[in-house]
Design goal:
By secondary structure, the protein is an all-alpha fold. The protein is built from 10 helices and no strands.
């Protein structure tokens, strides 16, 4: 657990990194622009403190999107009944539909397309690797429970599922499939070998 930064004598302690991340997340989910300077000002932090914690706005956005994605994947899987490939497909479908409806993601893609692509789809960032790891964990859990035998090794299957979602949800407006969660579900069903 992080300890709050200390302020000047007579002033309350400055906010924590977690408080800054929480405020950024609230703004993101509301579809507002996440501005590091505005967050620092609202929390009574020095701008340098925000830069020390997150380095760049892209890094802050990546951290909050990755954390939200991990949290939502776990929560959705916990709410989906059943096991095996059908439960995985339903989990991924609900997750994808939630992503497609997230105001902050839509605003980021609409107003900052290249930045959004770097944050969301780069293997060098934090979002893609953490979401791949989260998907892989769900697959591994079903394998360990004896409920699922994948057609591909779990790491490759998880990566393929995430890359497909990126194409359908973020990238391929030219092909007319951006946001087409129904088609995405059909392709994921083939990967997971779920019929009907």
């Amino acid at each position: 657990m992080s300890t709050p930064a200390t302020g000047r004598p007579g002033r309350p302690a400055a906010a924590t990194k977690q408080a800054a991340l929480a405020l950024a997340t609230t703004r993101f989910l509301a579809g507002e622009r996440v501005d590091m300077q505005a967050i620092a000002r609202e929390l009574g932090l020095a701008r340098a403190t925000m830069h020390h914690w997150f380095r760049t706005r892209e890094a802050l956005l990546g951290e909050l999107i990755a954390a939200l994605g991990e949290e939502r994947l776990r929560a959705i899987r916990a709410a989906v009944p059943g096991a095996g490939a059908p439960a995985l497909l339903e989990t991924f479908d609900r997750f994808n539909r939630e992503l497609a409806a997230t105001r902050g993601l839509r605003a980021l893609i609409e107003h900052e397309q290249e930045r959004a692509r770097r944050i969301l789809t780069s293997g060098e960032g934090v979002v893609q690797p953490r979401i791949v790891a989260g998907i892989e964990q769900l697959i591994d859990d079903e394998i360990a429970a004896g409920q699922f035998t994948p057609s591909l090794p779990a790491p490759a299957l998880a990566y393929a599922i995430v890359r497909l979602a990126e194409a359908f949800l973020y990238n391929d407006a030219v092909m007319g499939i951006r946001g087409d969660t129904d088609a995405l579900r059909e392709v994921e069903a083939v990967l997971l070998r779920v019929s009907g």
